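As described in the Methods, two query proteins were run sequentially through the folding procedure within a single session, without resetting any intermediate state between them. The first query and its resulting structure tokens are shown here.
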Amino acid sequence: MGLYDVLNLARIEIFDSIEEGIHIVDHTGKTILYNKAIEEIEGLSQKQVVGKHLLDLFPDWTKENSTLLTVLSSGKPIFNREQSYLNFKGKNIKTINTTLPIFNSGKLVGAVEIAKNITMVNNMSEQIMELQQKLIKPVKNETGIKHYHFDQLIGKNDRYLEAIKIAKRASKSISSVLIFGDTGTGKELFAQSIHYGSVRNNRPFITQNCAAIPETLLEGILFGTSKGSFTGALDRPGLFEQADGGTLFLDEVNSMSSALQAKILRVLQENYVRRVGGIKDTPVDVRIIAATNEEPEQLIQSGQFRKDLYYRLNVINIRIPSLNERVEDLPLLVDYFIREYNDRLGKDVWMVSSELMEAFKQYHWAGNIRELKNFIESAMNLVVDEHVIGKEHMPSHVAEVLLRKSQYIQPDKNLVDDLNGHLAKIEKEIINNTLSLYNQNISKAAKHLNISRQNLQYKIKQYFS
């Protein structure tokens, strides 16, 4: 056996013993070497591949999606390109590929692809991220005020992860954002995460619920006041001035009157504010994140949301799914809240019982995550030294509401002959349950339902008089 034969055998041994996949083709695209690591990655054997053209085995490959074909065509190397695909055994594979042209006397004679399989590393990374989501606690700044970041947005539901994905992209932008989500879904958490993930993170983040303040006061709060503009008025900056350089989060933006919405629009267009009663324009640099708990398109049709303001705010749109749409996230959220209240209340609770978890999954969460958090807090206060929360730890008025079958979703597909009547029945039931939850306290029930006290009183009179 000559030296050349020995070197050739050594080369084959080396290629088959390394962890990286090696795939070498000649200038026509036929495979001349295919090592064991690439067999494992792609789910094919050397006998199936060697001597065959790439397109015989991979007919869908093109220059756009195959690094080997690209390099054979261009003669230029490609470094560290990530690729994700299903291999021939149906496994999800993720690799990092470097593909190099092979020249002999200046002539392109082939190409070699070196593939590093990072599938296991990628899977482990995703598992670690999921564990971090479960274990992470709300971050507090030096003043003790909670600042939420993307790590605190807990869930694995596809729609929820898509909302997080869009929010992360929004954090890299300077454009306005409009968030839609039911009451209690965490709209402010998303808004904070966008702000604290952006270049404005060291500037103010200010929140204002536009439905919580009477219209006559809200204008002065937002735009500021000038001394003498009305009895007792002082020179005071509004929230736009206070948030200069940072972010202003306007929750329930649609609750403002059309006239006040027009003034918000003017600030967005002109980048200056004029205080109530003032004559001086003050330039401001404020990013607006707005939110609504009702479908924006319906609000526009009903005249509650100005179309021009909607288009100005809706540059980036984020829709947060309700808790009823992400039931698979309940175990993660329950575990998170148990850990939070273990710290706050000095408890040592590990989990909820399987019976209670099943009840959670069957329950209609009108108040979404906020309602779930209240349920867990109520139960944790009744735990003495037990490690598992059961139905016996739920306050009686909560257990009665929670453990009964949902009356809102009926299996009969022919149920809804009268949609308005059916929706009225659902609303009446929700109001009745919430009033029971708070022992007929209208103010607390209105706050829980995120509607005004006057609105709730009107509905009570409408449904129960």
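Immediately afterward, the second query was submitted; its sequence and tokens are:
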Amino acid sequence: LPAATTTLFAMPMPIIVTTCPTLASRPRVNVSRTVKCRAQASRMRIVQINASELSLIAAGSNLPHPDKVAKGGEDAWFVRIEKEGGGDMYLADGVGGFNERGVDPGLYARVLTYEAAKAYAAQTKNPLGNAGPKKAIQVAQEKTRLPGASTMIVVALDGNILKAANLGDSGFRVVRHGKVVLASPAQEHYFNCPFQLGYAPLSEDIDSASEAQEFEFEIQPGDLVIVGSDGLFDNVFDEDIVAVANEAVAKVAGAGAFSAAMAASRALVTVARRNAEDPLCESPYAVELTKQNKSSVEAANAKGPLGLLSALASNAGSVMTGRKLGGKLDDITVIVGAIVATNAAHEDIAATKRLSQEMQKEADVMKKRAAGEEAKTARSVNLRKQMDAALKDKVAQQEAATKAEAARPREFSTAIIETMDAATIRRLLEERGLPTSGKIERLRERLGNVRADR
């Protein structure tokens, strides 16, 4: 949420020495190093535990795309915690393509995040409710009635079980003892086209929250949960995410979990932006793009010499090196959550709660401002429904008229027409206002189609 993220970035940012490797300093990265979902860890036995035993101390940072700074970018995020512990994190990445239609996808992402957090809070307070991150995303999609589209991820701590639901190419990592022990995979229809939520009455091309991937993982004190938009994962490899986060946390050792989460989130967005702007960076995005280009060249080669030349021309930048280089400039949002024992983290819980309350105030203001756009959207949807209904009625009337016309008897039978000479046929057609030119066979057919008056 823009105002809150601006406040966060008013504070000094640490200097991180990690830089993106170039071809000279780093061997070619195996694609297997990119995002992997460890299926064996994504579903684990749920252990019943009091939700107050562990807390998710979270803080986040955001750097909008340089061209979108004025409006705060198109990512939205939110964190929440109760004094009893637990905690949840939300991130939505608005689909930038809607700018070409005069629509701000950032507003859709912000309202989506607002509705998801509101839904999850209501669900957790209802012991008989069907609570869960995926359900929160479903409710949010239903209640976000605006033009636009967005990916979304919700991560929540329930006892010692981390529950998450993700749709699109944002994601999360769980870091334990310096290693990624759980990574969510990107959901894409094809390269660089993620699954995305939207308002169904405005578009048939959106995806449904029911398609979100779900995760459950047994968490431990000391774990870091890193949630990011694709601006992070397109520009920083997992092992570098771990290294940057650990270095940032070490720099504020003893300052508490909230300070550690804040430092790590800032450090990660800083490194991601640096890589995104580095034309020699061998980023995860560049590695994947190289794969895609290689596949397109191989497919073109199968079509013959001309197809191969065309593919090489379109990928000239990678012909000499065999690969694409550079990061992907985008909005970058990172939320870092530190898992701690609740009874030892009262100050950190209070700090996270203050952050949540500040963000909630800004979100409430945003939601009120969005009411006008929601009303406009409702009018557009109603008008579309009326137009669709009118068109349906018109089509039905036309079909009924066609059927009625077809049911009318012919004025002249085929046998009678066959006995007529050409002059008679032309005279009858002329009397009925029909064309009289053409071959006799066509004239007989035309007269045979004349229906008798009822």
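The CA atoms of residues 62 and 333 lie 4 Å apart. We note this only descriptively and draw no conclusion about the first query from it.
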